[in-house]
Amino acid sequence: MNKFDMIKKTSILGIIGNIFLFIIKILGGVFFHSQAIIADAINSLTDIFSSIMTFIGSKIASKPIDDDHNLGHGKAEYIYSLLISIMMFILAFTLLKDSIFSLIEQKKLVFSYLLIIICLITIIIKILLYTYTKHINKKVNSLLVKAAYKDHRNDFIITTCNLLAILLSKYGLYFFDGLMGIIIAIWITLSAIEIFKKSYDVLMDKSISEEAKEKVLNIIKTHPEIKKIQHFNSTPIGYLYQISFTIFVDGNLSTFESHDIADSLEDEINSLVPEVYLTVIHVNPI
User: Fold this and answer.
1) Which of 18, 41, 82, 117 is the most exposed place for a label (fewest CB within 10 A)?
2) Domains assigned to the chain
3) What is the pLDDT of residues 150-196, one digit of tens each?
4) d(CA 62, CA 69)
C-alpha cells in the first residue's frame, strides 16, 4: 500500500467515525442543553472537514512531477492544512462566544446517563482512531496525518473533561459545562495556530532545519578533496527538502573526476539525511 492509499484509508475512517460522533453529540447536546457536548459536536464537525481536506490534499500531493510543476505537487498538502487551520479558527471563535453566553445566562445542563454513554463511545472511538492514525503517520510522515492523530488525541482529552462536566452537573455544578466549552474553544485555537504555522513555514519556503543542515555539512567534511562550499540553499517540497550548493575542488582534476565527487556526494546525502529529497551540487575549480 503506497503513501496516498494509507492516507486515503485514514481519511475515510476519520470521516465515518466523526460523522457518527457528530450526530450523537449534537442530538445529545441540544436535547439535554449541554454547551460542552454541543462544542464537542462542532469540534467533530471540524474533524469531518479536516478528514475531507486530508483526502483531497494528499491526492493532489501524490501527483508526480510534470511540465507545469517541476518540483511536484507536495505543497498541496500544506495549502489544505492551511485551510483546515482557518476553518478551525472560525469555529473556535463561534464556540467561545456561545460558551461565554452560556455562562452569563447560567444555562443548566440536564443530567442524563445517555450523555455519559455518548462520552464513553466517543472516548473509545477516538482512542482507536488515534492509535491507528499515529501508526500510519510513522510510515508516511505527513503533516495532514500528524494533524489528524493529534486532533484525535485532543478529542479524547476534551471528551474526558466533558464527561467530568456531566458528572459534576448531577451535584448542581452547572458552570463547569460552559467552562469546558470555553476550554475546548481555546484548545481548538491552539491546535489551529500550530497547523497554520507549520503550513505557512513550508509555503513561504522556510529553510531546512539547522540540525539537518549540520548533518549535510558533516558529510561534506568527510571528503578532503572538497576544499570549500558556497551558496547553500534549501527549498521545501512537501515535508522534504531539495538542497543545492557549490563545491570547490582541485582545478587540476578532470571534469569526469570532479563530477564523480559531486555525484557520489549527492547519493550519500540523499541516503543518509532523511529530510533531503534531492541534492543538486554545482562544481567549481579552485
Assistant:
1) 117
2) 3-203 (1.20.1510.10), 210-285 (3.30.70.1350)
3) 778 877 877 887 788 778 877 777 677 778 778 878 887 888 898 88
4) 12
